[in-house]
Amino acid sequence: MLAGLPPPLTPPDRPLPAELAGASSHGYNCRCVARHFGLDPEPYGELPACSLTEAEYRRLLGDAVETQQKAKRLAAARDFAGAQREYGRLRQFAQRLDRTDLELAAVSDLATLRYAAGDLRTARQCAEAVLAAFPVSAAAAVHFGQYAELRMIEGSREVADRVLISLSTEEGDVGRARELIAGQRHRAAQRKAAGPAQYPPELLDPHGADELELRILEVRVEAAAGDPAGALAALDGILAELDGILADEAQVESLRVMARAERARLRQAGGENADARADLVRLDAQHEGAKFAIDLAADRALGGDFPGAVAAIAAARDELAATGATGDVAEASHALGTLLLLAGDPRQARAQFEHAGRLWTANGDTPGLRRLDVALARCAAAEGDWATAEEHVTRARAAGEWLQRLHTDFVAATIGFARGEDLPAVLDLLLPVALAAADYRFEFASPRARTAWARDVAGPATELLMTVLARLKAPRLAAELIERTCAVGAYTGAGAPALDLTGTLPGLEPAPPGAGLPLAALGSVTASLPLRLAPPPALRWSPDAPMELDRWLGVAADRYGSPRPDPVPVTTWPAAAPGRETFLLRYADAGHTYLSWRSTEDLDAVHVHSIGAELVATAREVLAEASPTPREGESAADAVRRSLGEDAFGSLAGEQRVARVLALNLLPADLVTRLRDAAAGGRRPLLRVQPSPSLAAVPWGLLALPDRRPDQALEPGEEGSCFDGDERVLDVADVSLLAPAGIPRRPPRAAEGPPVYLLDPRIPGQSAFGELGSVLGKQEPASPLIRYLDARLAAGPVRPAAARGLDLVRRTDTDRRLLTRLLAEPCSRLVFAGHVSQVRDEHGAQTALHLSCPADVPGTAEPIGAHRPYTAADLALSDVDTMPARVALIGCASASDFGLPEPFGVLLAAVAAGARLVAATVWALPTSAAVPGADPMAELVIAVDTALDGDDPVTELCAWQRTRLARWREQPEPARSPAFWAALTCLDASDDGQTWVR
Hints:
Layout: H1 30-36, H2 54-76, H3 80-97, H4 100-116, H5 120-143, H6 147-170, H7 174-194, H8 209-224, H9 228-242, H10 249-269, H11 273-287, H12 290-302, H13 306-323, H14 326-342, H15 346-363, H16 366-382, H17 386-396, H18 402-419, H19 423-440, H20 447-472, H21 475-486, H22 522-526, E1 539-542, E2 545-546, H23 549-560, E3 570-571, E4 582-590, E5 592-599, E6 602-611, H24 613-626, H25 636-643, H26 652-666, H27 669-680, E7 686-690, H28 729-732, E8 734-737, E9 756-759, H29 784-795, H30 816-823, E10 829-833, E11 836-838, E12 847-849, E13 870-871, H31 872-877, E14 886-890, H32 906-912, E15 917-921, H33 936-948, H34 953-970, H35 978-981, E16 984-988
Parallel strand pairs: 1-3, 4-7, 7-8, 9-10, 10-14, 14-15
Antiparallel strand pairs: 1-2, 4-5, 5-6, 11-12, 12-13, 15-16
């Protein structure tokens, strides 16, 4: 009687295959099969399993199956030592039963187990052993007709293949990893083509779980190939799909853990610490894994609990060691070493790193050993052992994928800088690193990821680079770097579907929402619409000179695969009116704040200055104390009272102090001298400023012009010693903001047609006296603003159509749908006066105008009660084809774009949509209710609209502000305070680089 497996129905119809000749074991009781068919058993070898009775065989087989299930349970619980013991027992059963399928299942599962434990050497050996044994085992199964068992060993091959995919990815061999993934997909397609006639349905991946696992592995490959941004987006999609799969819950949960752990790792690498922590907390809570506790403890240290973090990592390491997870133990030691190094203890840190290194060496973990060299280099540098540090860095730089090389090169540059030798060599290494890191930011789809990358990766590299350039006295490169930093682009929305503002559901990718989806639910849907931040374009320094950075951008492209400069550069200077000198002033934050200024009279002359971080902090604090923008926890009313106090904008002495402190800290002496000289020439010059995020709220025209500079730090109240009079920037120059050179924009519309007015829109669900209430207050037919609007109506038509001025104020229909219709027709200008706010702090595309939009219209912002704000993202994705050439956005801090982590709010969204000049404000505007009996808000609206209707709005608005300054000096009372008019500024993009797109 044939023991064990069911016998094949027909005898082999061909001679024994050559690959089976001489084999001591073919699997599947081959000798018994030969006897069963009356064949000569001699060629098939004498096998112990042939002597088993049916009962013995079934008992052993049952024990084997039970052992396999136990091993899988232990592996899922991350008890690697226990699981390995059970897989050893399973292999013994397989040998006694002559079951090659069980042997290959055990070895392939061992490959997965050892990979998870960090033992990469053994994992590779096991995976390669499975692949080596597969041809012989497959030939035996085919020869004897045991096709069910053939399908079992095919599964083992797939498991082994996936281990090799992971190993190839970690070692940077993305080509091999992609080849293996393609092979898996090809074989899966063949199985599906063969169908249930040859394969059980469960082996045909009916729920797509196997394909999702391949996609997770593919995510790792894409991250290793240099696209962690795309990898993160793919993981979000995978996790969403896993929520809808009805496959085996244990399998789905395993894939969910795998995807979340990978997402946490990528988020940490990209600086998205809060989001990474959320993933890790969920993994730790659900799976009680010490593995995830390591990362959580490291994050805890960043929060200031160093002793608690060290204790938590040590406890996790002990727990991991007991399970045999040597790879995770190495990670714990590396994390401890990192904390100790940050704490200033390189000796103990080295001991921890070396412990991790011994485990990585034993495990054959090449990527880990590369990290070891970087860590030991940092330890050696901390102790001043430069020779040893350079040895480690040289080894680390010899291999690794591009992101690892970039990190290693940055460490090498920091070591070289700290050593204080050969700064040109440090520059050669650091400048491409900083450029590549800065440009890679734009690969991230998530605004939070872009911001975190800039803060944690690109920022430190640029900070060190600016320090090196200052030491080397290389002002031209520093100035170019400032200009490139300031040239950051806007959200393009390229390729994104437009938001249909008529109430029709938008068509979204990858799949449209269900037809029955209520409009109220669209907030969460449209929040994921694709808005990509454009990288800086290629720039040109002057008509006579290209950018010296172009060569370094080429080096960065060669070393790290960053984009090469565009063939057609954008100019970094605007056209200047004949006979009128224009000054370009740009600021960039990089630890300290750096500025460069140039004049159109001599564009090739370089002027670069650094402003210490403490000086910038002082300026910001003084301005914040005086500004009517509410501080954290402060009401709008309290903010206005503070701003109109004696120490702020409520008295001439208080306001002068603010203007003087800002000027002494922020304006370089050589620029002040040149401004005065230019003004003395007969025509007032134009000062165009692009502020850094830290200086976005500065009222540049109000700044006082110092007559001398102090030779030591001044105490509060001593700033007056540097001034002979009260001359301000406005007194000698006209001032406007400078748009980032990299904003792609639509061509402007011809300046014809009636004006469009959106004045104090009535917001659904909001009281006139509430937080989003009226900004203009109660208007009467005799009010100055209404009389002005009546005069406008008498002169010609306006939009929306109105019979009298009162009909243009506090309308209930001024929503985004009306705005789209109004701007579809020719118009000369758009004037908005109302509420502007940041509806989320995540990124600039969420700054918003508050129109009369109900909550049920589509948009990217979450509703506020019955109202949905109109964000910059909405404008970028809307059907608004082109903005008028001149726009006014009169609202609280409507010019705050430059203060956002990504400088693209409603101000720059208007520029991207075609506006050539935008009037806006840099702080929150007090309403007229702050000064009973006066209407400074109405004065502001009238002045802005009048200027936008003139030939030179910048000059006219600055002239109006000079009249306000004269009135304030003459009679410094609250109704005349700069709090009401000094925040006004114009962003003039009418004659800059003009990077037009359609």
